[in-house]
């Protein structure tokens, strides 16, 4: 009923109903209903542009779904949190939820999807002006595609890698380094690849 009230834009009634549902679920220790009600309340807050309140509810819902091994739902909620935190320019929080999604993709061996989310995290890092990390994530996305047999998908990712401001990766060009897999694994814990051998194009000065 609370979700229906949200759809009807009757937000006050929706909040009351969903808060009651959350209290009941906590009392009877029903984690599934609790996660569902928290997610619905987060969506209600988000529609009202109450972003901090929305994030609080969605974060708890996301982790509850994960605890119940409902990883796909957890991943969907985490994607919403990425969008929400990005809109707030809270880069560290957005990157945290990117990592949450990547961990699920890695666990489920969803390599094609993982490549897409590595690229998405790279985009966030570009906006945050953390260009060296962004370059590593784009290169990891390319390598993941190639190693998984999706080589046709990495031309766009290569163009994103080449578009990173030249000044941000001068250190790589000056030392003529290829992507350092050990450095990549420090920045993206538990990422396993056979090797990253793609050079960063020089471009014209």
UniProtKB/TrEMBL annotation:
UniProt cross-references to InterPro entries, sorted A to Z: TPR-like_helical_dom_sf (IPR011990)
Protein name: Uncharacterized protein
Naturally occurring in which organism (per UniProt): Tulasnella calospora MUT 4182
């Amino acid at each position: 009923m609370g979700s229906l009230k949200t759809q009807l834009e009757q937000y006050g009634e929706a909040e009351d109903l969903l808060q009651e549902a959350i209290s009941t679920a906590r009392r009877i220790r029903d984690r599934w209903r609790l996660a569902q009600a928290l997610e619905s309340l987060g969506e209600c807050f988000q529609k009202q542009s109450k972003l901090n309140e929305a994030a609080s509810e969605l974060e708890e819902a996301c982790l509850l779904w994960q605890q119940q091994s409902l990883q796909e739902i957890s991943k969907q909620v985490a994607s919403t949190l990425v969008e929400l935190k990005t809109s707030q320019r809270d880069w560290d929080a957005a990157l945290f939820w990117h990592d949450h999604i990547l961990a699920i993709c890695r666990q489920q061996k969803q390599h094609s999807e993982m490549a897409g989310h590595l690229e998405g995290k790279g985009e966030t890092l570009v906006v945050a002006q953390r260009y060296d990390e962004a370059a590593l994530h784009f290169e990891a996305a390319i390598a993941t595609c190639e190693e998984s047999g999706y080589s046709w998908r990495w031309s766009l990712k290569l163009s994103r890698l080449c578009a990173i401001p030249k000044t941000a990766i001068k250190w790589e060009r000056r030392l003529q380094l290829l992507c350092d897999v050990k450095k990549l694994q420090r920045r993206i814990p538990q990422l396993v690849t056979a090797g990253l051998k793609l050079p960063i194009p020089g471009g014209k000065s």
